């Protein structure tokens, strides 16, 4: 009989081709990052509510975003919107160094406990994700786990290293969200619009 993790990976393999990403999904215990009352749904391919009105994203979306960053294990990564910590835990298995920033102290504290239980080495910070963490920049890859309105915040794009990749949900004027992939190339950001998604909004705490 296949384990719940194996069943989830088999489902994700229909849409995700990066075997390193699929191995990370199999290895990271998603139940550690899900509220205890929802534990039976932890391995389902669905988003689930967590504290502070936030969610732990659908595994398919998390895996796709990780795949789009094209990580080979040598990168420094910024994760914007720690949330449950699950996305950061996957990134920690795929990259060399992961920094994750969260606006809500309660979420960051819970994520710290879950990440420790999962054995994931992630540097956590509190603050405005729209501003990134310039003190640790540049980043080879940036993951944004909340929807920017219209465009990705300029401060995040500026923290990309040469050849860096950034993936984020972006909300259009009509309220529709899609994944956007930004790639730095010779000082120019090349943007690709990808599939539709649904994320909580990216919240700024002050003016740019």
Give an overview of the whole structure.
The structure is a single chain. Helix 2 (19-27) crosses helix 4 (86-94). Helices cover 27% and strands 28% of the residues. The protein has helices at residues 4-12, 19-27, 59-68, 86-94, 105-118, 154-158, and strands at residues 48-49, 55-56, 76-80, 97-102, 123-126, 139-144, 148-149, 160-171, 177-185, 188-197. The chain is an alpha/beta fold and 208 residues long. A hairpin with a 5-residue loop joins strand 8 and strand 9. It is globular and about 50 Å long. The longest helix is centred in the middle third of the chain and has 14 residues, at 105-118. Strands 3, 4, 5, 6, 7, 8, 9 and 10 form an eight-stranded mixed beta sheet that branches. The chain is built from six helices and ten strands, in the order ααββαβαβαβββαβββ. It has a domain at 63-197: Rossmann fold (3-Layer(aba) Sandwich), CATH 3.40.50.
């Amino acid at each position: 009989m296949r384990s719940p993790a194996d069943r989830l990976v088999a489902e994700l393999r229909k849409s995700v081709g990066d075997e390193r990403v699929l191995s990370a999904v199999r290895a990271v215990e998603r139940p550690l990052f899900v509220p205890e009352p929802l534990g039976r749904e932890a391995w389902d391919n669905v988003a689930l509510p967590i504290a502070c009105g936030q969610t732990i994203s659908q595994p398919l979306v998390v895996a796709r975003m990780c795949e789009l960053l094209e990580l080979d294990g040598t990168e420094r990564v910024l994760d914007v919107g720690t949330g449950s910590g699950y996305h950061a835990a996957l990134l920690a298995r795929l990259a060399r160094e992961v920094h994750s920033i969260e606006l809500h102290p309660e979420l960051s504290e819970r994520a710290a406990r879950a990440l420790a239980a999962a054995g994931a080495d992630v540097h956590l910070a509190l603050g405005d994700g729209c501003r990134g963490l310039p003190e640790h920049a540049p980043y080879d890859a940036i993951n944004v786990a909340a929807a920017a309105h219209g465009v990705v915040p300029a401060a995040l794009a500026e923290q990309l290293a040469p050849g860096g990749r950034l993936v984020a949900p972006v909300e259009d004027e009509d309220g529709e969200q899609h994944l956007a992939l930004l790639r730095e190339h010779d000082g120019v950001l090349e943007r690709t619009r990808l599939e539709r998604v649904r994320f909580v909004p990216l919240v700024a705490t002050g003016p740019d």
